[in-house]
Amino acid sequence: MDDKIDIVNYASDAIDDLITFAKFWKTRDAASAAVTMKLVELLRTGIKFLLPNCAEIVDGASLGEAHLELMHLPYLVTIFEAPWVMEDEFEPMLNGSLQTRSTRRIAACWDMADKFEPFPGLHAPFRERFPEGGTFIVSVYYLDQVGAWSPSCGGLFVPRDFRIDDNFEYLPASIQATEAMRAVGRASGKPFRFRAEPFSLVNCLFAEAVAKFGGDPDMALSQVLVDTHDEVQMVVQACAVLNCANVSTVDVRPSNAKNAMRAAKQKAPFFTYKVLQLKPDAATRSTDAGGTHASPRAHLRRGHIRRLPDRTVWVRASLVNRGSPRGIVDKDYEIPPAV
């Protein structure tokens, strides 16, 4: 996390495309245009964080209750961005719908607050059901095939009381989304389950989704869950790490010259980004826990959260047991020790 990261300025390009989107819909669906411009305002004013590719900060297989407990936005409106270039083969069909590749992602997030409601009327039903509050997450994603940014037709609300028990009744949309994700291998076995409530936001896009699924709004909401799945993972991981005692942020500011050029072309300016930084005095050390068994071969330990008696810390990816005479384990391959 303390390596140099190139600023990608996704929010700036997304703002330009969303403004174009809003202008197109202004005479066709004024409500959709107004909502889109509210999203533009969130992208402009929110504090922005740049994350690594696919937001791979914490070992995804370990995500669970401990991470959800740390899901508190650092700012009322927080924008997380990450490139999303996956090694796995792209699934063209998911949830019975043709998918479009998206290699750039933005999660626009805000906390439910008494004096802040960017979309009038959206908070009321959630405030009544979840008085303890929670976080709203809306995906804004780049459509590679089209070469433009688009808002999702809806978003997800993750309440502070995110836990569910064995008697919890899932929404039809949640059941359908889980089945769709499992069918393509993106949800296996019994993954950690938590409460996440889908909602519609951009009327014109949600109406298109409902029509695509034969007039079934539950199927359209299940698509919202599928479309926002990666962004929720992004937010959970980022918030967990930001709440660790040994993690800080550094500000990367834009060039005045570049912003002057963008202003001349009437484009959105580049913004200041916060980049996660592991404090130098808290670098990960490989330690031997003792015992009489043979020491393990060297292996890559992915980043994870460690809870200590007085604080929570993030342990970055590291090579454990470097120089072991038993060799190295590298993903699925074994490399024997040097002779």
UniProtKB/TrEMBL annotation:
UniProt superkingdom: Bacteria
Residue ranges of the region described as Disordered: 283-303
Protein name: Uncharacterized protein
